Amino acid sequence: MVTLRAMKASDVPGAVRAWDQSFQAMRATYGLPVSRMTQADIVRLQNRMRHFLATDHDGSWVADDAGVIVGLSQSFVREGYWVLSLLATLPGSQRRGLGRQLLELALSNADPLGPGTIQCSRDPAAMALYTSAGFSLHPVVVGYGTVSPGTVSRDPRVRRAHEQEIDVVEAVDRHVRGSARSVDIVAMLKEPGSRLLLLEDRGYAVAKDDRIVTLGACDEEAATALLRTALAEMGGNEVVEVNWLTARQQWAIRTLVAAGVELSPYGPVMVRGLAAPPSPYIPSGGYG
Ligand SMILES: CC(C)(COP(=O)(O)OP(=O)(O)OC[C@H]1O[C@@H](n2cnc3c(N)ncnc32)[C@H](O)[C@@H]1OP(=O)(O)O)[C@@H](O)C(=O)NCCC(=O)NCCS
Predict the structure, then answer these.
(1) What's the rounded Cα separation, in Å, for the pair 113 and 134?
(2) What pLDDT digit, counting tens, does each position of 103-139 carry?
(3) Which ligand 1 atom is nearest residue 86's CA?
């Protein structure tokens, strides 16, 4: 019999396994490229799960079938802004209502009329589930490919910064998304290869050698300069990823096209309590 219960620290490895199996099975079903998680991916996801378990214990749930984790959900709330980080049910346990129940539990830690977002996968079941829970759907493209040589250069106003300057990020986040999430930015910066870029007090990006983790700015000119600089630093032959670009992020779409990075459709951003996803802003899939 399946029991729904709060997630414990000892559940984390099993919950990551359940996520990986469900996500990869979904991608195979819909003919999308499937790639196994590396050991580094597993560690990164386990750390992120533990992070939210510590900050938002009432947002983390599992479906337990005789000691085996067959489903999970994880959400968190920052200054009234709700984010779903993960939701999955193992293929053999799907279509029995578990996903809906896990989502309802993950929603129960916040004001149902408050702002909230979900970076949704390509799974039609997830899109249906979030739509019927009152979220509106905003289609997304992902930039994925190499940066064409000589197309982008560093902006001299953009500089590397450290977590001591988190107050700049905090102010920008309150401006662009109506809620700061410093504890999460610090967690993102702890991941290997993460760096913080600032442009005056107008915007920030958390970037790695192959991706934008998240980016927020007070205006599109600052957002564009940050994205161009991050792409210039990635450069070379590395395949880069810039995801979750809704129609409001035309500044980012134009920048990626100019840099020769290919765009393709991805899963939508789902929003409630907001007219549209924050902008200029690039969310993180798991950190919002
Ligand atoms: C999304 C997911 C969690 C749903 O889990 P589940 O346990 O099957 O969910 P439920 O049984 O509660 O069904 C959810 C709803 O989706 C509907 N649904 C299922 N497959 C569907 C499809 N292909 N198209 C449209 N709706 C679909 C179901 O009918 C159900 O609606 P209902 O309650 O009105 O009948 C599961 O499919 C999954 O793990 N997917 C892979 C991981 C993933 O992509 N997660 C989302 C991350 S954002």
Answers:
(1) 10
(2) 999 999 999 999 999 999 999 999 999 999 999 999 9
(3) 47
Contact 30, 84 (CB under 8 A): no
- The answer to whether the CB of 99 is under 6 A from ligand 1 is yes
Distance CA(230)–CA(140), nearest Å, equals 21
Confidence (pTM): 0.97
Exposed, middle or buried: residue 55 (CB in 10 Å: 0-12, 13-18, 19+)? middle
Domains and CATH numbers, the chain: 2-75+83-111 (3.40.630.30), 143-282 (3.40.630.90)
Q: Can you tell me which residue has the tokens 């994880």?
A: 74
Helices 166-177 and 182-190, axial angle in degrees (round to 10): 120
- Model confidence pLDDT, tens digit, residues 25-41: 999 999 999 998 999 99
Residue 71's contacts (CB-CB under 8 Å, 6 or more residues apart) are 2, 18, 22, 62, 63, 88, 89, 90, 93, 98, 99, 102
Tell me how far apart the alpha carbons of residues 104 and 99 are, in angstroms, rounded to a whole number: 9
123: Cβ below 6 Å to ligand 1? yes
